[in-house]
Specification:
Length: about 325
Amino acid sequence: MATANQIKALIKSHLEGDPERFKTIALQVAAHEARLGHGAIAQEIKQLIDKGAKQSAKVFPMRKDLDDLVIQTDPESRLSQLVLPQALKERIERILREYLQRSKLQKFGHSNRRKILLVGPPGTGKTLTASVIASELHLPLFTILVDKLVTRYMGETSAKLRQIFDLIQERQGIYLFDEFDAIGGERSRDNDVGEMRRVLNAFLQFIEQDTSESFIIAATNSADLLDQALFRRFDDLLSYKLPEKAQIIRLIENRLGNFGGEFIVESIVDQVEGLSHAEITLASDDAIKEAILSDQEKVSKQLFLATINDRKQYLQYSK
Ligand SMILES: Nc1ncnc2c1ncn2[C@@H]1O[C@H](COP(=O)(O)OP(=O)(O)OP(=O)(O)O)[C@@H](O)[C@H]1O
Ligand SMILES: [Mg+2]
């Protein structure tokens, strides 16, 4: 049994948030037990310490200098959730496959695709794709708030970018530069004497020099806004579009799940066309909620069309 002093020291190190000291004392307790001939207990304590080390290695505290600009998450989105044209899905699968077999590629002097530009209208799955890549490859997702980086740190944006690229090197993960046009905008359109141009130049230089094992994913609504010099710095460009009929059907069927089946989704596709994946997802969720509240087991065609019309009206107001 651990001595009273060891127990006190364990409690103290825990309260003081000192994991290193906690671990040292726990190892001392294990050694003490082993000396007393309690081999099994000693072994069990060591295993617990190992398990703790593995778990805490997953969740790093964010660097203080970046904690308002970079958000770390561990998404659980699956590839099967993404509803996209087959060709686009295959490009995402290729990114995953190249990463999983990167050492094979490296042997022949090639590297896996990991600098990726996502372009497309709002709500078509760009952020979801970054989450899927993170989750399928068991890597953390770091989302960089590009808007904030540019507005809050005006004048020191390039220095902040450097810190972000240091992090990219230090901690392997998926780095998503969302709303990327805030830094990727064409240099010539810059009215703001030089600052934005310097930022874009810094980004171009950092991304070119980056040899990390992380993914750098930039997402934007419009490729037209991006500076031409950017395109060749990325290994791949994935282009997202509003869903076509086949995808609309799949999205609604997936989302309605057990609440579907009351009507043939194909019969309402025409009324849904023009909405994004995100809007269709929201309309499906609205329909499910309405069905639950009115004690219906399935979503009826009438109810579904009503929620679709609601979404359309909402969109008109928000434009
Ligand atoms: N291709 C898709 N397949 C399945 N669900 C989707 C798809 N696209 C969007 N969704 C649904 O809509 C939600 C929002 O989509 P997401 O955030 O990925 O859009 P986005 O393209 O990043 O939009 P924005 O340009 O506004 O950032 C997702 O969490 C998901 O529920
Ligand atoms: Mg997004």
